[in-house]
């Protein structure tokens, strides 16, 4: 497939203290699909607005999927992307679930190489900053028949990212147990990364803010007792076992997103000598074991937030601290292990880092 490359004529300057989601880089990658040509018209050009027909199917029927992954500055000054092959695989799974064409993994990775190669000069050597990559695919056919689209557009854009929860990337957050809304249902789309999963969560996030919390903790849809996720992040618990701390995360039941960071932390925790397990954890168990001292730490993880400690939990029948409300030693060790691998300070498992030279 040929590539049309149009570098931006006016490169931007690297932001000094970006937040999350608005310090966009200069370029984007686009790739179109239709049933006759398949994937075609691959372009890399300046980040720009898209012309859309008002009947674009993706706007009406939510045939929209996306991913999130990061590029980090390495200790030797180079840049590498963290586990993009896993995001490429999950992107294909999301496409299958929404009856969309699957983007071959080699095209996904080529887009990552193109964009990071062109825009990595915007990433400083500040270890708290990264380039957050947002692959997106949506239905573009102008037709309001209730059916899958016959045309799609893949695009990749990026921004320089700072802290997801503010200037302190490791400050503990307070969370509200979500009792009135559900994120995902069995047989639904909870285990894929589609746009329709996120808009309905905003009202629960508002309720959390009104309760003085930064995030909502989702429970299962059927029994309303099993912990699933925190906002858009996977959750972990540190439990005191017979021989020391154990790391526990809710099992993947089909309603949780199989996070790349989640998978990475399970591997790193085992490598640090912590027993790891995937099991269902109820909110009552969380409360009781936190109050008894058996659960000493809780944290959430994701591409955007990395590892975020939970300090306090708010529920309808009371509140409780996790440990003493500060980041615990296991959470701290796991975050350090992850960040050190991402930045090349410690050796990464095979295939976890994709080095990308500048262009």
Automatic annotation (TrEMBL):
GO biological process: isoleucine biosynthetic process; L-leucine biosynthetic process; L-valine biosynthetic process
Low complexity bias locations: 1-18
EC numbers for this chain: 2.6.1.42
Biological or metabolic pathway of the protein: Amino-acid biosynthesis; L-leucine biosynthesis; L-leucine from 3-methyl-2-oxobutanoate: step 4/4; Amino-acid biosynthesis; L-isoleucine biosynthesis; L-isoleucine from 2-oxobutanoate: step 4/4; Amino-acid biosynthesis; L-valine biosynthesis; L-valine from pyruvate: step 4/4
Keyword Repressor tagged: no
InterPro entries: Aminotrans_IV, Aminotrans_IV_CS, Aminotransferase-like, B_amino_transII, BCAT-like_C, BCAT-like_N, BCAT_family
Top-rank EC class of the record's enzyme: transferase
CDD domains in UniProt: BCAT_beta_family
Cofactor: pyridoxal 5'-phosphate
Region annotation (Disordered) ranges: 1-23
Protein name: Branched-chain-amino-acid aminotransferase
Native source species: Actinokineospora terrae
């Amino acid at each position: 497939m040929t590539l049309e490359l149009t570098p931006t004529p006016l490169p931007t300057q690297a932001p000094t203290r970006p937040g999350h989601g608005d310090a966009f880089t200069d370029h984007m990658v686009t790739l179109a699909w239709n049933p006759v040509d398949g994937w075609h018209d691959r372009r890399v050009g300046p980040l720009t607005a898209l012309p859309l027909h008002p009947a674009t199917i993706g706007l009406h029927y939510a045939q929209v999927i996306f991913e999130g992954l990061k590029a980090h500055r390495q200790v030797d000054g180079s840049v590498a992307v963290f586990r993009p092959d896993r995001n490429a695989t999950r992107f294909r799974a999301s496409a299958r679930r929404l009856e969309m064409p699957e983007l071959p993994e080699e095209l996904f990775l080529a887009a990552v190489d193109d964009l990071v190669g062109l825009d990595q000069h915007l990433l400083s050597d500040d270890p708290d900053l990264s380039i957050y990559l947002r692959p997106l695919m949506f239905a573009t056919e102008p037709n309001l028949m209730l059916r899958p689209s016959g045309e799609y557009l893949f695009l990749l854009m990026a921004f320089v990212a700072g802290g997801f929860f503010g200037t302190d990337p490791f400050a503990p957050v307070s969370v509200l147990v979500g009792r009135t809304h559900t994120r995902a249902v069995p047989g639904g789309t909870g285990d894929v990364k589609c746009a329709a999963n996120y808009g309905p969560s905003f009202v629960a996030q508002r309720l959390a803010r009104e309760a003085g919390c930064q995030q909502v903790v989702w429970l299962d849809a059927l029994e309303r007792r099993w912990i699933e996720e925190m906002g858009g992040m996977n959750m972990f618990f540190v439990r005191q076992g017979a021989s020391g701390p154990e790391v526990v995360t809710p099992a993947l039941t089909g309603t949780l997103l199989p996070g790349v960071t989640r998978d990475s932390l399970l591997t790193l925790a085992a490598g640090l000598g912590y027993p790891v397990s995937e099991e269902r954890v109820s909110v009552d168990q969380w409360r009781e074991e936190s109050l008894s001292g058996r659960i000493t730490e809780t944290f959430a993880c994701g591409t955007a937030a990395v590892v975020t400690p939970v300090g306090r939990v708010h529920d309808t029948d009371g509140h409780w601290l996790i440990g003493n409300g500060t980041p615990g030693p296991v959470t701290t060790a796991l975050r350090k292990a992850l960040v050190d691998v991402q930045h090349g300070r410690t050796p990464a498992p095979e295939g976890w880092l994709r080095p990308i030279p500048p262009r």
